[in-house]
């Protein structure tokens, strides 16, 4: 529990362990959790695969080095780590002389407050549970397509499954997820 009595996310607890005890296992767990997510974010932001990997490495090294600066009262682990990665991405764009996309150059209007962070953690937990409830074949296709950022053709090449089977599994999984998470939609 935090000082305000709110439950801390697993990632925040891990980052506190890195901050307070230089816990290598906690850092490994953070790296395993965030590296693919950061890479996907960076790729969506216009970075090539190799560049995204380099930025992820730099960002996670900064997480290790700057862990003493982490304050869970000011930001969740996710917000803190994503901000570090975003700043590293901007640094790389500037080193290359590339223009920084407007959405990266602007600082967010405000840090998410505790209620927003808690709501996001709860939504993330619901999504994780809904994914876990999918049949394994459907879950695998959704994870490969959306978390692994593979095209349907790439999934077919990796798995050896027909393209139609892959598309059907993804469609069925997304329909089920939409139904399961319908109350999370915002107006």
From TrEMBL:
Pfam families: Sigma70_r2, Sigma70_r4_2. This is RNA polymerase sigma factor. It comes from the Bacteria. NCBIfam families: sigma70-ECF (TIGR02937). One of its GO terms (molecular function) is sigma factor activity. Residues 125-177 form the RNA polymerase sigma factor 70 region 4 type domain. GO terms for biological process: DNA-templated transcription initiation. Belongs to the sigma-70 factor family. ECF subfamily. Transmembrane segments: none annotated. Keywords: DNA-binding, Sigma factor, Transcription, Transcription regulation. Residues 30-98 form the RNA polymerase sigma-70 region domain.
């Amino acid at each position: 529990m935090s000082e305000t009595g709110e439950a801390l996310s697993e990632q925040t607890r891990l980052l506190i362990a890195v901050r307070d005890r230089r816990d290598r296992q906690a850092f490994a767990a953070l790296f395993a959790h965030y590296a693919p997510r950061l890479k996907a974010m960076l790729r969506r932001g216009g970075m090539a695969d190799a560049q995204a990997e380099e930025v992820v490495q730099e960002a996670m090294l900064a997480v290790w080095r700057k862990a003493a600066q982490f304050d869970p009262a000011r930001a969740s682990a996710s917000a803190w780590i994503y901000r570090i990665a975003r700043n590293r991405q901007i640094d790389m764009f500037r080193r290359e002389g590339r223009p920084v996309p407007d959405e990266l150059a602007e600082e967010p209007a405000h840090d998410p407050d505790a209620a927003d962070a808690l709501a996001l953690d709860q939504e993330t937990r619901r999504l994780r549970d809904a994914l876990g409830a999918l049949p394994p074949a459907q879950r695998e296709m959704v994870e490969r397509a959306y978390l692994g950022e593979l095209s349907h053709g790439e999934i077919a090449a990796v798995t050896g499954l027909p393209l139609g089977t892959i598309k059907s599994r993804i469609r069925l999984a997304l329909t089920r997820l939409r139904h399961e998470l319908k109350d999370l939609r915002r107006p």
